[in-house]
Amino acid sequence: MLCLLNSASPVRPAYRATALQLADALHQRNLGLIYDGSHDSLGALVAEHLLAMGGQVLALLGSSQAQPSPSAGLSSERCTDRQQRKARLLQLADAFIALPGGNRGLQEVIEVWAWAKLGQHHKPLGLLDGNGFYSQLGGFSRSAASARQSGEAPALLQIDSDAELLLGRLQEACSALPDCSPALHRARTMVQHPLH
């Protein structure tokens, strides 16, 4: 499973295009989506587009969140609080991915990255860099990677502006990690959405 972290409103055409590109790439690779069940976010746009193409979507809902409208291919799971949702994300996700836009999405990227640094998981994190949103973070990541000692595991942070290439790089990174499922290695996973 892959966890989609961004929940920005899909107002910028470039960000909308990036979200639709991700949905198309997920469909091409026969991957599903897990997202937060929101109705007005880039994650919702990805979910709707993927469902329209016959894909599989899991909505990971908060305790007071409205149930999404029934749709073929859509299932849901309710979490009682943020801690339970975090635990489910770490349990269900084989990798994480973030779309561009929004402070909340950036906060989640840093949180997931910190979890990896703290040893809570060893799962790759992909940033889909639409319109150069993550270019500064990419520079920081490359600088940090150059300071790694030899023999260390490959960098868990992957950045690309092409959804298809990014998913391929996440699968490649995941194949070398012990806690990624064989399903992601075969390109038949599901993706998830925000932590809140």
TrEMBL record:
- Catalytic activity, reaction form: AMP + H2O = D-ribose 5-phosphate + adenine
The lineage's top-level taxon is: Bacteria
The record's SUPFAM superfamilies line, in alphabetical order, gives: MCP/YpsA-like
Q: What is this protein called?
A: AMP nucleosidase
Task: Show the PANTHER family listed in the entry.
Answer: LOG FAMILY PROTEIN YJL055W
Pfam families recorded? Lysine_decarbox
The protein's Enzyme Commission number:
3.2.2.4
Which protein family is named in the record?
Answer: Belongs to the LOG family.
